User: What shape does this take?
Amino acid sequence: MPSPAGAPTPSQIENLVNKGSDTMVNLALAWAEAYRQVRPELSVAVTGGGSGTGIAALINNTVDLANASRAIKPEELADAEANGVHPVEFVVARDAIAVIVHRSNPVDELSLEQISRIYSGEIDNWAEVGGEDRPIVRLSRETNSGTHVYFLEEVLRLGQKDNPTLFSADTLLLPSSEGITAELSYNQNAIGYDGLGYVTDDVKVVAVAVGPEGPYILPSAETVNDGSYPIARDLYVYTAGQPTAEAQAYLEWILGPDGQAIVTQLGFVPVKS
Amino acid sequence: MSRSSWSEFVITRLIRVTGASAIVFVVMIFVFLFGEGAPAVAEVPLAHLLSARWYPIESHFGLLPLISGSLAVTLGAALLAVPLGVATAVFIAEVVPRWAREILKPLVELLAGLPSVMLGFLGIVVLAPRLYEILGLPTGLTALTGALLLGWIAIPTIVSVAEDALDSVPRTYREAALAIGATRWQTIWRVTLPAARSGVLTAVMLGIGRALGETMAVMMVTGNAPVLFTGLGSLLRPVRTLTATIAAEMGEVANGSTHYHTLFLIGILLFVISLAVNLAAASVVFRMRTRAERVLS
Assistant: This one.
């Protein structure tokens, strides 16, 4: 049977395998879908699993593109080099991490230090940060999530390399963003964090300040890009060695106006060229 | 050699091979688990493994919270599922008329086929918020939530297997009991159940095994906080089970790292725990049988 005009025959279809960060999975899917309009003969297969999963796959050379919501760790880089893989890094978008609470929670703003003390278990009651007399239930993503590692390093440890602060042992480790949103939708005691792109109207976003004197800033594209919102990070795509021609073209498209428009649509922050 | 004795020869060998393969597979699984998990004991000092903090990305490998979490959730589930499951099996096998059994049994077995991820989802959106509200807990994601859900998952297994065992008790036993003036309850409690005990115990073991090994539903509803279980009050707090730990962390871990080996050590632990449950149950059946044989002889 002849194929319709313009559509590629199966033998012409080329594949890019793209795996990694759950934070980025919706973004990566939207890119892959939109890119089909640009180059129908190229198919990008996207899966999640977490930043660590994507980088592990890159090290084992089973993916073309690994998505990560954190930079590759020195140990991972060493493992990759030992395996003959030389990861190349691309910053493809930025993401703010929103601190979220139940809609009825009267707390509107928290400083980084307060958030750190809440998650380390020092502050155990909402009354200590100006809220109601309720216990605090801490929600976090699992340890394989790039968001978890970022939050540990930049918020709990306030960006200090030698700070040994850990998450309080009774922090709930939920396997998905949906788990955090589901719990926050009914639990008035809970506090959580998640990528800005995943925040829904069912929860309330808290304004965050670096120091106790403020200013307290709500996360948005503007406050991330002008650097005033303190919990923002780069989102990465890694390739094993210099990208192939297909991967190179795809990455250029992602960093171009069409790819970055999708970044904005999904609630992330575009990278300024 | 004649044709029939040839096929006889082949068939006996085939049966012997398949029988032995079950044992071979179990041994191979254990050898593999041991090979991947044993290095953890050398890499992590025993005092660390027996500490109360599990945070592998910073090299805290305390297994106690995970072990206590798994045991608490499984025991809780067993306390719920065993009485309810056995009672339901008795009801279906002994109390209701035959036509009702033909309807109830497939319904229960349908329940056993429900994917656990779906039950976990129900647990998140229905059970956890209800428990939070009714019991006034800080969060609905607790050991109790996990135990209730696991109990629910184990019940169909227990009912189905126990009912088969009860059903295979010869009619004459019941008729004899009724003939010498036993009430229906006495017949069930003193005659039918004891006669089917080994099957009922198998049902209980399978149910407990199902609860111990269940991963997805537990990971969704127990909150996964690695907190040491210290008493009944801990039932109303989040816990992290051995299975959920493996499921949550295996995908990310670097091959051959200490964390990787420790996750396999957790696998060995699960293997040993379910072996212990099986051995305990088998020894109970064995002891009861020898006593019964003494009485009868």
Q: What stands out?
A: DSSP finds nine helices and ten strands in chain A. The mean pLDDT of chain A is 86. The beta strands of chain A are 14-20, 42-47, 65-68, 87-102, 109-111, 137-141, 172-174, 190-195, 203-209, 232-240. The two ends of chain A are 46 Å apart (CA to CA).
